Amino acid sequence: MHPGRLSLRTKLLAFNVGMVVVTLAVLLGLDLAFERVRINGPLYKAIDDGQAVVADILPPPLFIVESHLTVFELVDAQAHGDTARVALLEARLHQRESEFEARRANWTRALPAGAVRASLVDAACAPAATYFQVVRRDLLPALHRNDIATARELLAHTLQPLFADHRDRVEFAVAAAQRENAQREASAAAFVDRVRIAMLACWVALALGAFVFVRRVLMKPIVARVEEVGAALERIGAGDTHTAVAADGGDEFDDILRAIDRMRQRLRAAVDAVEGQRNALESALFDAQSATRTKSEFLANMSHEIRTPMNAILGMTDLALRTELTDKQRGYLAQARAAAEALLLVIDDILDFSRIEAGRLALESRDFSLDEVFGRVTALVGLKAQKKGLELLLPSSPDVPPVLVGDPMRLLQVLVNLCGNAVKFTDKGEIAVTVRSVASAADTVLLRFDVKDTGIGLAPAQVDALFRPFSQVDASSTRAHGGAGLGLAICRELVALMGGEIGVDSTPGVGSAFHFTARLGLGSTAQAPARASAREAGPRAQAPAALRGRRVLLVEDNELNRFVATELLCDVAGMDVTLAGNGHEALAQLRDARFDLVLMDIQMPGMDGLQCTRLIRADQALARLPVIAMTAHAMAGDRDKSAAAGMNDHVDKPFEPAQLFEVMLRWLMPAGPAPAAAPLAEPGRGPGPVVDFELGLRRCLGRPELFHKILARYLRQREAAGNEIRNALDAGELELGARTAHTLVSTASMLGAPALAALARELHDAVDLGLPERWRALLARLEDVQAEVDMAVARYMQDMAPPERSAG
After folding, report:
1. Cβ neighbourhood burial of 544 (10 Å; 0-12, 13-18, 19+)
2. pLDDT for 202-215, tens place per residue?
3. Tens digit of pLDDT for each residue in 477-499?
């Protein structure tokens, strides 16, 4: 059979088989050609080995350079009599020698015989070996004899030339390795170029042959038939559904043409049907658009027309209420303002309902905290409840995520509407709003909200009509409560937009329990705003969410200070805290575990904070660990000492919690500005009582239970320890006495006893400077003030009631 009479399917099959065979042949040739240079091939391996040698010896091995530097430090340490450092440096020198011997043995095994091995193993390593031999044989004995002159002579005239000779020979070995590797790379590149040219020629020939075959045998008849199909489709697309499509042959294109003709016939029938429907729809659409435009214009005009005079009424009423009025006049104006505000609420409800009805109300999607929403509910509804003597409770379940994603304003609108209705229809008792998680998925949570009141309740007939537009609980002309009857209908639509349902359970005379669900997204806790509980009464400093879960090492020897800091960091900030009583314990903890930050006291027994920080900075693994100083010494010189020791920042005792949180965030989140915790009020700087309990409470984040624990611990310590400062000074233990006075500075400041803290600081400085007459006079004054503080704290503890949690 002539090839021209074959079907298109047969032609394409033959062409595809030929292309597959040719492609496989070319790929096989490529595989064979690149066998030598592919990964793990002979040329590749030779080049890789050469590059490895160059990378291993260039620059000169670090252990040789470090050994030479160590020798300099060793001589200098011996000259200064630093025996501990001499031992450390000598051990380091032996370690570097062991590393050199190991590397030399490795090169001997790995390098093949040739110029590189001869120049490196046989030539370059000889001076280094001699270098270490001179160190062992001559330098170290001289240092052990404390013969510094001989040691420096050996260093200048023997070891320095050996080091320079080794360096020069290493550079020569590197050059040899690079030359040998360059030769291999040049050979590989030439081979690859030849293969690439040959393959390119093959592909060009294959492409030309395929082009000629496709052009003459396949494409020419196909193009003609495609043009025929295209012409038929173009006629139909232009609207000619009357002309039939001709298809006389039996190949694939004729099958396509016959299918197109059948499509033409069905399209003709559909066009005739649609034409009649279109005329009817155009008329209906015009009427609907006209009605919608009229309604929208009416609502916009009415909103403007009503709001303009209403704003004027509200403004003038406010101005009138600021003038001198009789009680009756003031009552009239107050009622007029309340009526105007109620009318504005009705207008807003009508506009919201209109938007919902038109399908133009869209919800936002952003991060928010449910506590913020509850706080707004309290601000908007709480005063109304308080005026009626009602208690508004808004507890939340622990299983509610801290950060949600959704529309907080619309959620607030539903809650305010339900809570406002509860206040409106309740004369005594309480309104409780609860929320809990009923279902959760990977990125969403379904929350259930319940709003319960102890009001008038609803009858079954009233419940059935409750969520219908313009319905009223009391529809009589004498009803006691106003409203347009749209609030609950709007709530139902908003809850539906949030993927939930709303309902009510009610008993007449007992109360009502509205409930609704909302599906919300889960937000990122890294972006969580500070959560201020709506249930707490007098604002507290809140810990930023970014601190939660961070590991911190608290180095503090004073038990009371440790207790306060642990309460703040663990209970408030949610951090993982590990304690250390001095520098030695801190270093042991840092060796055993990883921490995000260290809070370091300065003055401690054994090893103080400055020495501990210097040792931390000397350890390469801990060099970047943030270390923040915490001390009662607040002078500029103290900050300079902390910075010189390697500390990152400085927090004065007694620290304000917000300040401590801000400083920790500064070093835990260096990429950008950290959100600061809520600032606490700055205490006054004037004369006052011996103990300012309000100041102490503020320094405990306004938490009475924490402040109560701190005061109790202070009294127990005083009862158990007595006058530790006098006992230490009388026994001649000046360092212990100064350290105890230093501890009293921070303790007194935390209690809110500034006078005691100032005397303790003066006493510490007098002992530290060696002024016995001064410290004896100060000690007597301090004991008197401390006795007054003890009495004030004891009285306060007797009068202080157990801390209560606010419910509304």
Report:
1. buried
2. 777 877 777 777 66
3. 334 454 545 778 888 989 999 99
Residue 292 has what pLDDT? 67
Q: Across residues 263-267, what is the average pLDDT?
A: 85
The dihedrals phi and psi of 255, each to the nearest 5 degrees, come to: -60, -40
Q: What is the pLDDT of residue 613?
A: 94
| Residue type (1 letter), 792 | A
Average pLDDT, the chain: 78
At residue 799, φ and ψ (nearest 5 deg) are: -85, -15
Instruction: Average the pLDDT over 340-364 and give the result.
Output: 69
As beta bridge partners, residue 432 has 393, 452
Mean pLDDT of 706-721: 78
The amino acid at 723 = N
Other C-beta atoms within 10 Å of 183: how many? 12
Residue 433 confidence (pLDDT) above 80: yes
Q: Average pLDDT of 547-555?
A: 92
CA distance 85 to 83: 5
Question: Using CA atoms, how far apart are residues 338 and 347, in angstroms rounded to an integer?
Answer: 14
Q: Buried (b) or exposed (e) across 130-154, using 16+ Cβ within 10 A?
A: ebbebbeebbbebbeeeeeeebbeb
Which range (141-145, 154-158, 291-295, 754-758) has the least confidence? 291-295
CA distance 521 to 404: 6
E strand or H helix at 169, and its extent?
Answer: helix 160-213
Question: Phi and psi for 555 in degrees, rounded to 5?
Answer: -105, 105
- Map residue 690 onto helix, strand or coil: coil
Can you state the angle between helices 125-134 and 160-213, rounded to 10 degrees?
150
Which residues, listed in sequence order, are joined to residue 516 by a DSSP beta bridge? 449, 502
Report the b/e string of 593-617 with b at 16+ CB within 10 A: eebbbbbbbbbbeebbbbebbebbb
Q: How confident is the model at residue 709 (pLDDT cuts 50, 70, 90)?
A: confident
User: Residue 366: CB partners within 8 Å, gap ≥ 6?
Assistant: 405, 406, 407, 408
Cα–Cα distance between 413 and 485 in angstroms, integer?
15
Question: Which stretch of DSSP H or E encloses residue 445?
Answer: strand 444-453
pLDDT at 588 over 80: yes
CB 257 within 8 A of CB 229: yes
Residue 646 zone, left/alpha/beta (φ > 0; ψ -120 to 50; rest): left
Please report which residue ranges of 322-465 form alpha helices under DSSP H: 327-358, 370-387, 408-424, 460-464
Express as a percent the part of the chain with pLDDT over 70: 77
Q: Determine contact, residues 785/755, Cβ cutoff 8 Å.
A: yes
Q: Is the pLDDT of residue 519 over 90?
A: yes
| Residue 311 exposure: Cα atoms within 13 Å on the Cβ side | 6
Q: What are phi and psi of 335, to 5 degrees?
A: -65, -35
Residue 613's SS3 state is: helix
Pick from 598, 657, 659: which is nearest to 629 by CA? 598
- pLDDT of 38 above 70: no
Phi, psi angles (nearest 5°) of residue 400: -80, 125
Residue 639: pLDDT over 50: yes
Closest by Cα among 476, 458, 456 to 467: 458
- 377: helix, strand or coil: helix
What is the distance, to the nearest Å, from the Cα of residue 662 to the centroid of all Cα atoms in its chain? 15
Residue 665 burial (10 A CB sphere; 0-12, 13-18, 19+): buried
Measuring CA to CA, which residue among 761, 547, 571 is closest to residue 653? 761
pTM check: above 0.70: no
The pair of structure tokens assigned to 224 is 């003609």
Distance of alpha carbon 402 from alpha carbon 779, whole angstroms: 52
Give one DSSP letter per residue of 15-33, joined into a string: HHHHHHHHHHHHHHHHHHH
Q: Are 583 and 609 in contact (CB under 8 A)?
A: yes
Which residue is listed with tokens 């609950």?
488
